[in-house]
Design brief:
The complex is a heterotrimer of chains A (398), B (510) and C (326). Chain A has helices spanning 15-25, 32-53, 104-112, 137-143, 165-174, 181-194, 200-203, 213-225, 243-260, 271-275, 295-300, 305-312, 353-357, 377-382, 393-397, and strands at 60-73, 76-89, 93-97, 120-127, 130-131, 148-151, 231-235, 263-268, 280-285, 288-294, 363-364, 371-372. Chain A is α/β, with parallel strands linked by helices and 398 residues long. In chain A, the strands form two sheets. Chain A has an eight-stranded mixed β-sheet, sandwiched between helices. Chain A has a four-stranded antiparallel β-sheet with strand order 2-1-4-5, covered by helices on one side. In chain A, helix 1 (15-25) packs antiparallel against helix 2 (32-53), helix 2 (32-53) packs parallel to helix 9 and helix 5 runs parallel beside helix 8 (213-225). Chain C has helices at 9-35, 37-57, 112-148, 150-165, 168-179, 184-192, 197-210, 214-221, 226-263, 274-281, 290-317. The chains are: A alpha/beta (398), B mainly alpha (510), C mainly alpha (326). Bound molecules: adenosine-5'-diphosphate, iron/sulfur cluster and magnesium ion.
Chain lengths: 398, 510, 326
């Protein structure tokens, strides 16, 4: 998984884009197509160019090796993350995608050192070659917020309601650098201006509840970039926002990332979000990485049925066909008593006896640098449309 | 905010009116004051019935009587309306003057109980929340269940008849045996070890340290006759002041930036010097002088914090003021204990009082009287606050745990703040806001408890007056009780609402 | 997922989901409660105390197995000292036996075990009535306020505010003074009239938040009558809170009744309660401490076990049960 990476640069005449606009025009009772299309296309149009210019560097910033996290609970041990590995280079945007509960947040909280004390962490995490897990707590703390910053899902609850936005931003500076409060406030003002909040000076004195959801998420981005971090982990930064605001926030995120030259780990459950934004994508299922590859390959050369299922559930993104949804049925397995074999097998249309016996490891596929944890990835490689393995709603009810 | 306050005040008045009306009717229905007179067949019965009827206005129907009573009572509540009139008791005493004396001692008891319970309970709650599922946490949980399940009257009698006697016997001849010292040492070691926590080595170090300090200290104090004639002296005051400066800095600001520590130490030194320089003033000061000194001391602390605080001015001022408060309390305790010998003699060695709220005929100056009050408050307060301590600690623990799980605490940690800052600035600030509401709620419980405590310990307070009145079918003193407790309850609920709104900007500004 | 499409897909799916959730939820709750060791031990002890007190002196006309009656005056033996012994002879004690008067005798020679058992019966009975009736009133008022909103809510909640500002013990003392003469049952009923306020506020809060939930809105949109929505959709979801609160209020009622009786405003002679016993014999403390200790021990035992049971229930119902032990 340390293969060299080049960012994908779909041009505007890419058929991919056409599919999307076609999907958006199709029957879509929930209005989701518009959302997905809005996000991705605006991200393309405005920023894919920028994404391209900020080429991925060669320096490896963050490296996660065989990370696993267990939580002992009253009901048994929760195996939240089971051996995840990835690396992140300077300037790179890595997408981590998976259904909720697949271990995306837990794995990134492990990187931040924010897991509860009860968590049992194994494997290794290194930042610029130094093992984070072996650092003394004080050194680990000095990385947090200064070298690796995090943006959380729900901007409504992620800010302390009793302190002003300015205080909370300044605090992020003051916890790493001694300076008069005045100077820290000036930095906060700059950061707010950078994320596009009008009248930043006045806004510093506001409390979070006086901000709208989108503004709060901008403020959260400002808080993350205020110390010029090398890595920003954005955990579902747009999930809790209005669809109209989502695209703006993603746009802003890419813009400030380029301005400060940071790398991003973008976590989402929505493949539509990563489409125009990331260089590489890691798909997680039941605490494992099940497919890793360049963003284009994940979309067009899918080698794992779960990913295909995710693609099929995006309105308007499923290739060929009628534009109807082909969602994955059933729900993810319990992380306490995992069944033997491939964890996806109960939901997988390709599941065979082998799948139920033996859990597949990540294995190389026909695509360079593209790995998938599936015994039958060849069948996907042979298929024209991998999502077609999944049935549509109407097929199901028949 | 102003509109909010006005609305709350109007609502409070309405509630108070309705509450007193219901209480008035129930009290009127609870017994017939003439019953006893009717059963009495001695001569002059008719006249006595007539005069009692007149005194208590029994011929007027109850609702109308309430209106009349309210007319008199409102003059007690609203100033400048005229003379306060709460009616007469069956014995013909003026209830408003009865109430005056009774109220002072009850309010004293309740104030001390509230403050003590809140401080202990909130501290225990915070510590157990931070050390969730530790042995200390389980112990505190079990203790609070026990406290809530102990009937106050039973425990109060137990304290009075059992603990007080033993304690006084011990104080008359204070000796500490080796096993006693060892037991105290082990308990203190266990408590400190679980508070401090950490890895195995740190646990053992803190256990050993606490054991040696407590057991050894106890033995040394006993050997040197300290318990016979306790006192602190300027050296202990100085040590406490400096320790407070260091400890409070660690808690409120940390040592990364030294100016806060310097400010706190400067404040402590100023306190030490002042204690020595003002020796003659502190010999027997009036309460007014003491209050002025306190104001002055806080002013100086603010000044020192401002001058030395540098980049962390705000923390420096806060820390200095807290140091001042700790030192002030220590100095007062030190001075109060100077009256010990004199007091010991006056009460024949029965220092821990079990009856009443003050020793009759004792006048030991400011400090002696303070000591007298403290010794009288000791047992009733202990009995009274058990339930409150349990309530505060459970509530604080739950509130803190909830806050510690909030997203914004995670955000704070993700910014790289120290654990101390996360807890003090983000968790505590939010976790303690709901305590304002709890204080108002708990006060009602304490007032009920005061009825029992005063009965057991023979305090001539409002609770005692109320029980006495009910037993004698004497409506007016009973109503006076409901009036005062109603006002206190309404007032504190209102204050709690306003404080809550003030502390939470979401309500204050929106 | 092969069910035919329903004309009201949302509502039916929700209802179906609800039923499944409710069943597994109940199982989960039961399992968690039975695993709560302290609560289980408390339940056993509480039941044992109930059994002991009701079987020893009998219920109403049914006689108990204990040889003495709680009204029979007898000669005082050995200063009324307790004959209960629990230290076996081989440990140097008197052996394990109850003796003639295990808890001793009072100054009139009445067997104190019989008195204590009778007192326990009365106290528990009163607490039980107060716990259930008080909670019932609280649920009624809170539910009405939370569901109907508007002026109903305003009036009921203002009324609650008014009751709350009167110190519970004091206002109960005022009414109990008369009600006590009418016997323990009426005393209990009258006390319940003032103990419902806390639960009313809680239930109102629960109702307010539940009535906004989708499954309730769906049911309302489908024209389900109010009482049916309350019974089918809201009450089952507030059951945990109500049950926990009722249990804890039972423990509170034990303390409240005994306190009233201690002050002389609760249970009146010839009947007795644990609080009365303590009140009657508090001055005997120095000379005959058992007269004071035994009733207290029973009050503490009852209140403590009931509180633990309530805590076990709360843990069992609390959805944030993801307790992580480090
Ligand atoms: N503190 C914890 N204790 C027990 N289980 C946890 C804890 N935190 C997360 N989990 C479990 O770990 C799994 C992965 O969670 P998470 O990483 O948050 O998923 P997501 O991919 O949606 O971000 C979930 O099943 C969750 O229940
Ligand atoms: S291994 Fe088998 S069950 Fe698992 S995803 Fe591949 S085909 Fe499906
Ligand atoms: Mg997540």
């Amino acid at each position: 998984m340390t293969q060299p990476n080049q960012p994908s640069q779909p041009s505007s005449d890419d058929p991919f884009v056409d599919h999307r606009s076609m999907g958006a025009a199709g029957p879509d009772p929930l209005g989701l197509a518009e959302a997905a299309a809005g996000q991705v296309s605006s991200a393309d149009r405005a920023h894919l160019g920028q994404l391209g210019t900020s080429a991925v560097g060669t320096e490896e910033l963050l490296r996660v090796d065989n990370l696993s996290v267990d939580f002992p609970t009253d009901d048994g041990v929760v195996h939240a993350v089971r051996g995840v590995s990835y690396s992140l280079r300077s300037g790179e945007v890595l997408g981590i995608v998976g259904e909720s509960g697949s271990g995306k947040s837990v794995s990134s909280m492990a990187v931040m050192g924010l897991l509860p004390r009860s968590a049992r962490i194994n494997g290794s995490i290194s930042f610029r070659g130094e093992s984070v897990l072996d650092m003394p707590p004080a050194v680990q703390r000095s990385l947090r917020g200064r070298k690796i910053a995090m943006i959380f899902q729900d901007p409504m609850t992620a800010m302390n309601p009793v302190h002003t936005v300015g205080d909370q931003l300044a605090e992020a500076v003051l916890s790493h650098e001694l300076m008069p409060k005045r100077k820290a406030m000036a930095r906060a003002e700059e950061a707010l201006a950078m994320v596009g909040i009008p009248q930043p000076k006045q806004r510093l004195r506001n409390y979070p509840h006086e901000f709208s959801g989108g503004m709060r998420q901008r403020a959260m981005i400002a808080m993350a970039i205020i110390n010029d971090p090398d890595v920003i982990i954005a955990d579902e930064p747009t999930t809790a926002l209005d669809v109209t605001v989502q695209a703006q926030i993603l746009e802003k995120l890419v813009e400030v990332k380029d301005a400060i030259g940071a790398a991003i780990v973008l976590i989402t459950h929505d493949l539509g979000v990563v489409a125009g934004m990331t260089h590489r994508v890691l798909v997680m299922y039941a605490g494992r990485a099940v497919e890793v590859g360049e963003t284009d390959d994940i979309f067009y050369r899918t080698r794992m049925p779960y990913t295909a299922g995710l693609l099929g559930s995006i309105p308007g993104l499923d290739s060929e066909s009628d534009g109807r949804l082909r969602p994955i049925h059933g729900s993810p397995p319990s992380l306490i008593n995992l069944p033997s074999g491939c964890p996806f097998s109960p939901r997988c249309p390709l599941a065979s006896e082998l799948c139920r016996q033996e859990e597949p490891d990540l294995m190389a596929t026909d695509v360079m640098g593209h790995v998938a944890a599936c015994h039958h990835w060849q069948r996907l490689a042979e298929a024209d449309d991998p999502t077609a393995f999944f049935r549509t709603e109407s097929e199901v009810s028949k | 905010m102003l509109a909010f306050i006005v609305r709350r005040v109007i609502a409070a008045f309405g509630i108070l009116l309705a509450g007193t009306f219901i209480a008035y009717v129930l009290v009127a229905l609870s017994g017939d004051p003439l019953q006893r007179l009717r059963e009495d067949n001695s001569p002059g019965r008719e006249e006595r019935i007539a005069s009692m009827t007149e005194r208590l206005d029994l011929d007027t129907p109850v609702p109308l009587r309430y209106v009349k009573w309210l007319g008199g009572a409102s003059q007690c509540v609203l100033p400048f309306l005229g003379k306060c009139d709460l009616g007469q008791s069956v014995r013909g005493q003026d209830v408003s003057s009865l109430l005056g004396n009774a109220m002072t001692s009850t309010l004293q008891l309740i104030t001390v109980a509230t403050i003590t319970a809140a401080i202990i309970g909130v501290m225990v709650g915070i510590i157990t929340a931070l050390r969730q599922y530790s042995r200390l946490d389980y112990t505190a949980t079990l203790a609070s269940f026990l406290f809530v399940s102990l009937p106050l009257f039973w425990f109060a009698v137990l304290l009075k008849q059992y603990i007080a006697i033993d304690l006084n016997d011990w104080l008359a001849d204070p000796a500490v045996s080796l096993p006693t010292a060892a037991i105290v040492g082990v308990v203190s070691g266990l408590v400190w070890a679980s508070i401090i926590g950490g890895d195995r080595r740190r646990v053992w170090t803190s256990f050993a340290g606490a054991f040696v300090v407590s057991a050894g200290g106890l033995l040394v104090l006993a050997e040197t006759g300290w318990f016979r004639s306790p006192g602190l002296g300027p050296i202990v005051v100085a040590v406490v002041g400096l320790a407070a400066a260091v400890g409070l800095t660690a808690l409120l600001a940390g040592f990364r930036y030294r100016n806060v520590l310097y400010a706190a130490l400067a404040t402590a030194v100023a306190g030490i010097v002042a204690n020595l320089a003002l020796d003659s003033v502190l010999f027997n000061p009036s309460w007014g002088v003491l209050f002025l000194l306190l104001l002055l001391a806080v002013g100086i602390a603010v000044g020192i914090g401002y001058a030395i605080g540098g980049m962390q001015r705000r923390q420096a001022i806060t820390t200095s003021v807290w140091v001042t408060i700790v030192m002030g309390t220590t100095i007062v305790a030190d001075r109060m204990l100077t009256a010990w010998d004199n007091y010991f003699e006056f009460v024949d060695g029965r220092v821990i009082a079990t009856f009443g709220s003050e020793t009759p005929n004792y006048d030991g100056g400011t400090w002696g009287n303070l000591l007298d009050t403290v010794t009288h408050l000791a047992l009733p307060t202990v009995a009274l606050i058990l339930v409150s301590v349990a309530t505060y600690s459970r509530y604080t623990r739950a509130s803190m745990l909830e806050v510690m799980n909030q997203d914004y605490v995670r955000t704070a940690r993700s910014k790289g703040l120290t654990d101390r800052t996360v807890v003090v600035r983000h968790a505590l600030r939010n976790g303690l806001i709901p305590i304002t509401t709890l204080m108002a709620f708990d006060l009602a419980g304490l007032i009920g408890g005061a009825v029992i405590t005063e009965t057991v310990f023979g305090w001539q307070g409002m609770g005692f007056m109320f029980v006495d009145a009910l037993r004698n079918v004497d409506p007016n003193p009973a109503m006076a009780f409901f009036l005062v407790t109603g006002i206190v309850a309404v007032l504190f609920n209102m204050l709690a609402d306003i404080a809550y709104a003030y502390l939470d900007p979401r309500i204050r500004l929106g | 997922m092969s069910t035919p499409v329903d004309p009201r897909p949302v509502a039916s799916a929700e209802a179906e989901g609800m039923a499944i959730v409710a069943r597994t939820q109940a199982q989960l709750v039961r399992r968690r409660f039975f695993r709560h060791r302290l609560a289980m031990a408390s339940l056993v002890v509480f039941m044992a105390v109930l059994l002991l007190s009701f079987s020893a002196t009998g219920i109403g006309p049914i006689p108990g197995w204990w040889k003495h009656d709680y009204t029979t005056v007898a000669t005082v033996v050995d200063g009324g000292r307790p004959t209960l012994s629990v230290v076996p002879t081989f440990l140097g004690g008197d052996g394990v036996h109850l003796g003639e008067h295990p808890f001793g005798q009072d100054n009139k020679g009445i067997d104190y075990f019989a008195l204590t058992m009778r007192g326990t019966q009365i106290s528990v009975m009163i607490a039980f009535i107060v716990g259930t009736l008080g909670s019932f009133i609280g649920v009624l008022i809170g539910a009405a306020a939370g569901f109907f909103r508007g002026w109903t809510e305003t009036i009921l909640m203002r009324f609650t505010d008014i009751i709350i500002i009167m110190p519970l013990l004091a206002i109960c003392a005022v009414i109990a003074n008369q009600a006590g003469n009418a016997g323990p049952f009426w005393l209990a009923v009258v006390i319940s009239l003032f103990t419902w306020t806390g639960l009313a506020r809680i239930v109102r809060g629960e109702f307010l938040s539940l009535r906004e939930k989708e499954f309730v809105e769906a049911a309302r949109a489908a024209g389900t009558p109010a009482w049916r929505i309350i019974r089918k959709h809201i009450l089952p979801n507030t059951l945990g809170v109500i049950l926990v609160s009722a249990t804890l209020s039972l423990a509170g009622a034990v303390i409240l009744e005994t306190s009233l009786s201690f002050l002389g405003f609760g249970v009146k002679p010839p009947d007795t309660s644990l609080g009365r016993l303590i009140s009657d014999y508090q001055s005997a403390f120095v000379t005959r401490p058992w007269l004071f200790i035994w009733p207290g021990v029973f009050i503490v035992t009852i209140a403590l076990t009931v509180n633990f049971i309530g805590d076990g229930l709360r843990d069992a119902f609390d959805p944030r049960q993801n307790k992580v032990r480090s």
